[in-house]
């Protein structure tokens, strides 16, 4: 009986605390639906498709509204104007990394993606400089991508036009490019190490995009005390980091400070230079996590986009035929595609952009946070408040992209058939936290897709009309359905 009384009192205290925290902020934050004690607004959201819930809520509360995901408030920005105002016009003030409990458990604030403050600024600055030194955005990295595109074609030829699931083949190509920068080596497409790593990355993306992950991120206590798929995610991260740590140890044993081979070498040299600085951010923990961040971001996002892109090309053979025609006219069948070709291939360029726009890979972006108390559209947002920016609302804006739910390369073409840029194209986010590897990703998508279509005809195992391009999960990322296809050599 006493236990029941104690539990009742504890629950009452939690309810009162929840109500007090919510009311104490009332009048400062943007409007939003009334939250329930403790659980907030979670019951008013479709955890299978958060973006759809945001669209409905924006119709009621406008482009800036507040949700309580558990006890803490989250401000949601919906629509191009609100997102641009925050991420670009007020980029510094909105440059914090917001609450993402699963990532916080996995990375513990280290690395580049989920760090904040001085650590984030120093690691990001160093990473961008080092990546540029190793050819990011230069001709040397284009050579690597072209070489990998040739390896990809050879691997696809080995399928002998039989039906195949392209997931891991397409994963190996961008993986090898980023590995050449981080490790100074690439893997064979049948190497069990790389296949295991890709399997772990793929599984983690599926877990993060599941409804269960949304629950974990909204109620962090679940992560520590309740079993579930999130435990597998954390184990996968630990396994990948263990592999990276072994690579780092190998680099330490063979390091030549006068001749750095790759990103790991450069980081180790920086660690040595700052070994007497007790406040240095250049530690083994930050190296492991930064390498993990670059590895994951440089592999999974590009491979998922390629996989989704081929599915859309199977669904729309008329689009694929026009790309084939442009490749034949501009490049031919013999020489390798290069980035100079892009300016002469407006339709192919439009197709690549439309794939990214249509699939809306990261619907609600990674969470941001405000770095100071800020007045935003007459609302006062306290320092540290998590900000969610709906990239769906920008990429699927029906005024900028008529019929946004339709896959149409015409969204990026003018009346004369020339490529048309759009400020609404925020597939890589925007502002201070935008994707550090945007240039490489754009290069890979163009060169890999054009090289594949230069050498193969894509053939579906089902009637194109029966292909379903609806994502099977739409949480952290939009995950395409599994499928098979034939790569028919030309």
From TrEMBL:
Binding site for heme: 435
MF annotations from Gene Ontology: heme binding; iron ion binding; oxidoreductase activity, acting on paired donors, with incorporation or reduction of molecular oxygen, reduced flavin or flavoprotein as one donor, and incorporation of one atom of oxygen
Pfam families: p450
Keywords: Endoplasmic reticulum, Heme, Iron, Membrane, Metal-binding, Microsome, Monooxygenase, Oxidoreductase, Signal
Subcellular location, record wording: Endoplasmic reticulum membrane; Microsome membrane
Superkingdom of this protein's organism: Eukaryota
One GO process term, biological-process aspect: epoxygenase P450 pathway
Names of the cofactor(s): heme
Enzyme class label: oxidoreductase
Signal peptide: 1-18
InterPro entries the record matches: Cyt_P450 (IPR001128), Cyt_P450_CS (IPR017972), Cyt_P450_E_grp-I (IPR002401), Cyt_P450_sf (IPR036396), Cytochrome_P450_fam2 (IPR050182)
GO cellular component: cytoplasm; endoplasmic reticulum membrane
EC numbers on record: 1.14.14.1
Membrane topology term: Peripheral membrane protein
Entry similarity comment: Belongs to the cytochrome P450 family.
Protein name: unspecific monooxygenase
